[in-house]
Structures are given as C-alpha cells and as structure tokens.
Design goal:
The structure holds two protein chains of two kinds. Chain A has 16 helices and four strands. Chain A is mainly α. Chain A is globular, with a radius of gyration of 23 Å. Chain A starts with a helix and ends with a helix. Chain B is α+β, with helices and mostly antiparallel strands. Chain B has helices at residues 15-18, 21-40, 83-87, 124-128, 155-160, and strands at 67-68, 93-99, 107-115, 134-135, 152-153. In chain B, a hairpin with a 7-residue loop joins strand 2 and strand 3. The longest helix of chain B is centred in the first third of the chain and has 20 residues, at 21-40. The interface between A and B is medium-sized, with 24 and 20 residues. Bound molecules: iron/sulfur cluster (2 copies). One iron/sulfur cluster (SF4) binds next to helix 4 of chain B.
Chain lengths: 430, 174
C-alpha cells in the first residue's frame, strides 16, 4: 500500500467516525432547538462556556456530563451478569454505527493509478452490509426489554421485534427493486449510476426513477429507526418508557445515542440510494475533474454568500431578548464567531484558488474534488436529518395495530408490485 | 339544536385522506413555515424567558405552595384537628398538637410541617380543613433548595407566606 492509500483509508475512517459520533450532539441539539422553533418555543439556549452558547449546542455536552455522572441503577433481580444488561444498548449503538461505515462520502479517488475508496469500510457489497448489520440493532432492544424483567419493557421489545418483522420485508423488497434498477449492490456504483439524467433533463436520482420504492424505503426506514411516527417500542402513554424503562444514566444514553446514530445512518442510506449521494445534480465526477476550475470558482462565489448570510443572521438573532436585561455578553460571542467564520472562509478560498492554479489531473485536484463531494454529502445528510425531525414533530404516533396494518396491507403488496413492474421493465418484458 | 354549537365535519374517509401522503405534506408545510418564520426572527417567538421574566398571569385558582392563615388578631388559625393530615393521600403533613394557652382556642399545633417533596398538590388538605387554616393561594409555583430539608416547610415558614390574590385577611373564625 502506498502512503496515499493509507492516508485516504485512515482519513475516511476518521471522517466516518466523526460524522456518526459528532452528529449525535448536533442532532440532539437540532431535535431540541428545531422542535422548539416549530412549536414557537426557544429550546435550550442558556448553557454556555465563558459566554459562548453556540446557539445552544453546548447544552448537549452538559447533558453528556449529567448522564455520565448520574447514579447507575439496576433492577433488583439482576444479581449477576450485569454486563449483559449493559451490552444490550451497546449492540444497538454499534449496529447503527457499523452500518454507517459502508456509506461512500466521495467518489473513488485515483491517485498515482491506485483506486482508493472514500468509504470507512472499503467494501463493494454495501447494501447487503447495511441490511445485515443494520437489522442487528433490534437485537439490542430485544435483549434490553427481556433482561429488564419488567412487563412494560418486555412489551416494548416485543413490539419492536414484531414491527421489525413486518417492516423488514417491504424494506428489503424496495431495496431489491432499487438493486435491479441500478444493477449493483455497491453503494458507490449506485451513486455513480445516479449522476446521469432521465428524460433528458431530470437528474437520475432514485427518488425520480423509482418513486414508489423511494416512498416505501423512506417509510420503512422511519420504522427501522424506531422513530416517530413509528415509535411503538416506547410510548409513555401505553407502556411507560418501553424497552428502556429500567435503563438509567449512561445505559439509557447509549440507547438514546443509538437512536440518533440509526437515524443518521438511515439518512445516509436514503441520500445514497435515492438522492444522488455525494453528487451535485447533473454533475458526474468525471466532469468535475475535467472542469474543476468552474466548480471551484462557483464554490468560491457561493461560499462567501452563505457565510455572509450566516453572519447577518447571527447579528440579527444572536441577541439578548429585549425583555431580558440581566444577560449580556452575546455581542462578544457574535464578534468572535464572525471573525472565525471569515478566517475559515478566507482559508478555504485560498486553498481552492491554489488548487485551480495547478494543472488538472494532479492528486491535489482529485483530492479537492473529493472534499467538495464530502461537503455536498454532509449538506444532504443534514438536510435529510432535518426532514426526520420535521416529520417527528408533524405526525402523530401511529397506534400499534395501525402500524401493523400499514406494513402488511399497504407496504408489502405495494413493494411486491413495484418489484414486479421493475423486473418487467429491466428485463424488457422478455 | 341549541345555539352556539359548531358542527365539525368528520374528515379522513376520502381516498385522498386515506392515502395519507398529501396530509403529511400539508402538515410538514405548516411545521416548516413555523420553523422558518421563527428562525428568521428569533425575537418574534412569543416565549417567556423564565428566570428573568416571571409569569404575570397566574390565575387565582392556581394551587401554589401551601400557607397557614391567621386569625383577625394575628394568631395561628389552625386548631390542630388533624383533619388535613388525615385527608392527605401522600401522608406528608406532620402535626404535633399542644395546649393553647393564649385563650383564643383550646388546641394549636406545636409543629406543623409539610414535606413538599412528597406532596402531590392535590389540595385535599385545603378541602378538609374546617377552619380555613390552610390554603394554597400563595401563587408560589417554584420552590428550590440545596438539600432535602429545604423542602420540608415548617410552621414558621408556612405562616410567613402571604396570599397572592388580595385575600390577605383570613376569614377564619368569622
Ligand atoms: S396538597 Fe394533597 S398531598 Fe399535599 S399536603 Fe395537601 S393533601 Fe397532602
Ligand atoms: S390546618 Fe386545618 S385541618 Fe389541618 S390541623 Fe389545622 S385546622 Fe385542622
């Protein structure tokens, strides 16, 4: 292995871990802040370190400290084998984390004739890995509910299990339809397939090529992540807290974080399979490599505009509300953040400018393209995570029988029908 | 049909509704609009910034912290009859009675304490009291402390609270 290969492999692994783990506090913050703003509340905005509130993200870290320091409580009947109780949330968490690791963050890098995958686990059977490893998460929920020796917990885990049985089928079938369309089980090849156009002008994204499979996939993934409106494994009005009733402090936090990692993973899978992954619409990697200058210039124009917007928003909104006078010091935070943003923008602009001056085809250009694609990927990931949160605060929860009804009576036949039609189209009716 | 009755049509039986997705789309639109309006101007969010801003609209019927009332002459109204302690579902009222020597009545509490960590603020004690000696009209909705003892309100503390809604003078005994 050449040094470049080692750097890329390590880099993508670190990036994957960071994207999955750092996303947790950000998602917790998003969930609380966005929920607040949706419901005309403010959400957490007080916690600060030396006056820096960062809009409330600091609250997530305070939460972590709180959860770590909380009293560990075990159900009385558990005399031995507490590690098994602790293991269950870890299974859920690890499954979601491992499933995320096969998502490509950028197209294959060609450096010195070597093809390097920008994928934490550089495998070419990503879809199978996701389906296999992702489904293990429910085992952790099952174990947790069963070990708790608590009727509510048991009910919660049974409900989670039965929901997995009913939603894994349409999920698998819609994925099979997508596999037939793309003719691959490699996430990266799927993204490459989506860089073309359909009907001459629309980007060939999965959601446009396979709308029915897309809807089924998104719905079933909501069910897979156990999130509202399909959060039947929990639910305080019916079964107290469901499968994590007996879980306290960090053990609970593991389940909690597992849910966010699972949601992040589901978002990544959806954008990779349906929304063109790391690619801009209409733009393939080849065109980015040959016309890198144009894209770099475009980015250099767009980035300051975005940063300018952010700064203006911050100056307008990062203020102490007029009704509250006891709290000063946000002006300083705004100033420091403005400075940091400007310096960051200048650095990125400078780096891009430098790369555009290099002859095309060099490793630096290829790397810059990969970084641009990573930026696109992260943007899409955030957008879809936001969609997850919007849905949660929009839809009421389904009753358990409604969940089963939707799964078996609507989604399964629809997925079968879609698979049938796809097969006919792909084989040309032969 | 009586007047002022609004008949709400039942929704959800049409094909469009049963298909769900249009409704979800509509819902997300509303959610998103709220979100976007508020992000655009955070100062427009009509929320109370609690510790600095205090609520000014507590209704008179709000069950706040308890207090012990006074007689017109300023002495303790409670006659230590144990009715409130008997009615309390949380068993959090502790009364020790003693003989009353000031000539106003025969009995008074030596100790009267409410453990607010146990109390469920049901108001049964107020209902049970035969001489209006205990009330929950202080309007105090938040009690903070650093240890458990801070939350056990003793007689002196209960007597020191004032009614928040202009009924300062207890009508006990009148
Ligand atoms: S409010 Fe209810 S629980 Fe509290 S002291 Fe009175 S009777 Fe007891
Ligand atoms: S507060 Fe009222 S009910 Fe309770 S002991 Fe005193 S007089 Fe009796």
């Amino acid at each position: 292995m050449s040094p470049a290969a080692i750097i890329v492999a390590l880099g993508s692994f670190v990036l994957g871990a960071l994207l999955a783990l750092l996303m947790i506090p950000v998602l917790v913050w998003l969930e609380r802040r966005v929920a607040g703003l949706i419901q005309d509340r403010l959400g957490p905005n007080r916690t600060n370190i030396a006056g820096f509130r960062l809009g409330g993200v600091v609250q997530s870290f305070a939460d972590v400290i709180k959860l770590v320091l909380k009293e560990e409580y075990y159900p009385a009947h558990i005399k031995t084998g507490r590690w098994l109780l602790m293991l269950s949330p870890v299974i859920t968490f690890a499954a979601a984390l491992l499933a995320f690791m096969v998502i490509p963050f950028a197209d294959t890098l060609y450096i010195g004739g070597e093809a390097l995958r920008v994928q934490p686990l550089p495998v070419d059977f990503g879809v199978l890995w996701y389906l296999g490893v992702g489904a293990v998460g429910v085992v952790g929920i099952f174990f947790g509910g069963w070990l708790s020796h608590n009727k509510y917990a048991l009910l919660g885990s049974v409900r989670a299990g039965s929901m997995m049985v009913s939603y894994e089928l349409p999920l698998g079938l819609s994925v099979v339809a997508l596999i037939l369309t793309y003719n691959t089980i490699d996430f990266n090849a799927m993204v490459q397939w989506q860089s073309g156009t359909v009907l001459g002008f629309l980007p060939a994204w999965g959601i446009l090529v396979q709308p029915l499979a897309a809807v089924i996939l998104i719905i079933t993934l909501f069910a897979e992540t156990n999130r509202a409106p399909f959060s039947v494994a929990e639910g305080e009005s019916e079964i107290v807290a469901g499968f994590f009733t007996e879980y306290t402090a960090m053990k609970f936090a593991m389940y909690f974080m597992g849910e966010y990692v699972a949601m992040n993973t589901a978002s990544a899978v959806v954008i990779t399979m349906l929304f063109g992954g790391y690619q801009l619409p209409w733009v393939g990697t080849a065109s980015m490599l040959t016309h890198f200058d144009y894209y770099a210039w475009g980015y250099m124009v767009v980035l300051p505009l975005i940063v300018f917007g952010v700064i203006r928003w911050m100056r307008k909104n990062n203020r102490v509300r007029p009704t509250v006078s006891t709290d000063g010091g946000r002006g300083f935070e705004t100033k420091v953040l403005t400075g940091a943003l400007i310096i960051m923008t200048l650095l990125i602009e400078g780096a891009l400018l430098w790369v555009t001056l290099l002859p095309e085809g060099t490793a630096a250009v290829a790397t810059a393209v990969a970084l641009l694609q990573i930026a696109v990927f992260v943007t899409k990931l955030m957008a879809f995570n936001l969609f997850f949160i919007l849905v949660r605060w929009t839809l009421p929860r389904f009753r358990f029988d409604q969940v089963q009804y939707l799964g078996w009576y609507y989604l399964l036949p629809l997925a079968l029908f879609n698979l049938f039609v796809t097969a006919l189209v792909v084989t040309g009716g032969a | 049909m009586p007047r002022n009755v609004k008949v709400v049509p039942r929704h959800g039986r049409e094909t469009k509704d049963r298909f769900y997705l249009p409704a979800i789309y509509e819902g997300i639109k509303i959610t998103f609009r709220h979100f976007f309006d508020n992000v655009n101007d955070i100062t427009a969010v009509d929320a109370l910034e609690y510790p600095e801003e205090q609520p000014g609209d507590i209704t008179e019927r709000y069950r706040g912290l308890h207090r012990l009332t006074h007689r017109p002459d300023g002495s303790v109204a409670c006659v230590a009859c144990f009715m409130c302690a008997t009615a309390c579902p949380a068993n959090c009222i502790f009364i020790e009675a003693t003989e009353r020597t000031d000539g106003v009545d025969e009995k008074m509490p030596q100790r009267f304490a409410i453990d607010t960590l146990e109390c469920v603020f049901c108001g049964y004690c107020v209902e049970a009291c035969p001489c209006d000696a205990i009330r929950m009209d202080t309007g105090i909705f938040s009690l903070t402390g650093r240890n458990r003892e801070d939350f056990v309100l003793e007689k002196e503390r209960l007597l020191s609270f004032r009614g928040a809604f202009g009924e300062e003078d207890s009508r006990a005994g009148k």
